[in-house]
Amino acid sequence: MQISHKTALVTGGASGLGLATTTALAAAGARVVVIDLPQANQDALLSIDGDVVFAPADVTDEVSVQRAVDIANENNNLAIVVNCAGMLNGFKTAGSKGAFPLDKFSAVINVNLVGTFNVIRLAAQAMLANEPVDEERGVIINTASVAAFDGQMGQAAYAASKAGIAGMT
Ligand SMILES: NC(=O)c1ccc[n+]([C@@H]2O[C@H](COP(=O)([O-])OP(=O)(O)OC[C@H]3O[C@@H](n4cnc5c(N)ncnc54)[C@H](O)[C@@H]3O)[C@@H](O)[C@H]2O)c1
Predict the structure, then answer these.
(1) CB atoms < 10 A from the CB of 97, how many?
(2) Which residues are catalytic?
(3) Both ends of the chain: CA-CA distance in Å?
């Protein structure tokens, strides 16, 4: 795909893999709209040489993700989505400290799996209106983990969320 003059939406773009992806896409000539939590450190984003817009949103929130998608698609050329936002925690399923807290399990599933799907569905809906270029309306890339297939002790929630992303993709 031609990246130059396209708009990309990158989640978790203020740190790590998302920040590196944002930097690379901006260097390739894309306009990049970054979704990350409102409290995320934006310093690294501000230093990127390129067209980068911060759209604060929690990936699990329908309204703020729709707002970010609208910003990304304001020129009707949202063509790239890279889902990097994610979190993990560590609790044994059962043990001397008690059972894995169910709310902690749900939190990881909610951000990593439900949040990724929330972004996919709203971005894909916007991309449907794109005129196909080389038979493509756009591309969506999701981030799973080797943990999807071989999770470590204490990471039942993370492994389940990443297996969910692999299956969903
Ligand atoms: N780091 C690794 O070794 C590794 C290995 C395999 C997979 N991954 C996956 O790659 C992705 C990026 O990992 P990373 O190491 O760059 O992580 P990171 O912690 O550096 O960055 C994750 C970003 O996601 C954001 N985020 C978290 N919850 C969010 C939410 N609800 N809404 C919006 N943004 C949210 C964070 O603020 C952060 O900026 C994750 O999905 C992670 O599971 C990482």
Answers:
(1) 9
(2) 158
(3) 19
Q: Give, in words, the CATH class of 7-168.
A: alpha beta
Strand locations in 3-135 (E): 7-11, 31-36, 52-56, 78-83
Which of 143, 150, 155 most suits a substitution to test ligand 1, by most atoms within 8 Å of the C-beta? 143
Q: How far apart (Å, rounded) are the C-alpha atoms in residues 52 and 78?
A: 14
For the record, the structure tokens of 39 come out as 């409290």
Mean pLDDT score, 75-86: 96
pLDDT of residue 143 exceeding 90, the answer is yes
**What are the pLDDT digits (tens) for 21-79?**
999 999 999 999 999 999 999 999 999 999 999 999 999 999 999 999 999 999 999 99
